[in-house]
Write a structure and sequence with these properties.
Blueprint: E1 14-15, H1 18-28, E2 34-38, H2 46-52, E3 55-60, H3 63-72, H4 74-78, E4 82-86, E5 101-106, H5 112-121, E6 128-134, H6 135-142, H7 149-157, E7 159-166, E8 171-172, E9 179-185, H8 194-207, H9 215-219, H10 225-235, H11 248-261
Parallel strand pairs: 2-3, 2-5, 3-4, 5-6
Antiparallel strand pairs: 1-8, 6-9, 7-9
């Protein structure tokens, strides 16, 4: 597939190191399981996934790439080890996968947050997510002491871990920054119902809306000052706290206390 060129419009960066692909497949722990692969590209990661999984469902938005993949993996497709879907994963119905599945993805950086949120909040959640992201994003989610809207969202549904760094030279064309493999395991539904989930993220988004403002000021968009004050006291939060200073457990207590006195 050496004659395939990356399309800037699709944000394509093809993984070209076979050893890196093997390490990603190993880190995904997908033995004897169904795998949903987003962005198979040239098939570099698809090969080791097929060697470990019982079935791989690969979604590729680029029709030219999909045609090449159909040729490359013709035997796997005929043996029904591989199902190749041409389309945008953002319109994919996760309910179409009837068995527990793991998500493995090498996607354009600009849709990283959207894809992570989509698969953590869908009803048919994956058992795990293993995804190539910008190194800085992986560090912010899994390593930083300062939280972000995305890091708290991820930790709400599962346990993130920074697996290893992937240098920009492992891709063609090389991106402007290094990447990292991020895994999210123990994925579950932490809310009793949709209303509780909606309320949690309404408060979370308000809290992170203006980074330079104190958290209490941001929260006035969703609660009265008196309510916020009572919730702060009940949650043992310092008056000058910022959204990034609160851990997941403190956020959970805050939301519970805001809802209790609201």
């Amino acid at each position: 597939m050496s004659n395939i060129r990356a399309k800037k419009s699709l944000g394509q960066n093809f993984l070209m190191h076979a050893r890196t692909a093997e390490r990603i497949a190993d880190g995904a722990h997908i033995e004897n399981q169904t795998v949903l692969e987003i962005g198979p590209g040239t098939g570099m990661l698809t090969k080791p996934l097929l060697a470990r999984a019982t079935h791989v469902v690969a979604i590729e938005t680029d029709k030219a790439l999909a045609e090449k993949l159909t040729e490359t993996f013709a035997s796997d497709i005929s043996e029904k080890k591989l199902t190749l879907i041409v389309g945008d994963v953002r319109t994919f119905d996760t309910a179409s996968i009837t068995r527990p599945y793991a998500l493995v993805a090498n996607i354009p950086y600009y849709i990283t947050g959207e894809i992570i949120r989509t698969f953590l909040t869908t009803k048919n959640k994956p058992t795990s997510i293993t995804i190539l992201v910008q190194k800085e994003v992986a560090e912010r989610i899994a390593r930083s002491k300062k939280e972000s809207l995305l890091s708290i969202a991820v930790k709400t549904y599962g346990v993130p871990a920074y697996l290893f760094t992937v240098p920009r030279g492992a891709f063609v064309p090389a991106p402007s920054v290094d990447s990292a493999v991020l895994t999210i395991t123990g994925i579950h539904m932490p809310f009793k119902n949709e209303q509780e989930e909606t309320r949690f993220f309404e408060i979370l988004r308000a809290g992170f809306a203006h980074k330079r403002k104190l958290l209490a000021g941001n929260l006035t968009a969703v609660a009265k000052k008196e309510t916020i004050s009572k919730a702060y006291t009940a949650s043992n939060i310092p008056p000058k706290a910022r959204a990034e200073d609160l851990s997941l457990s403190v956020w959970q207590n805050l939301v519970q206390n805001l809802s209790a006195v609201d």
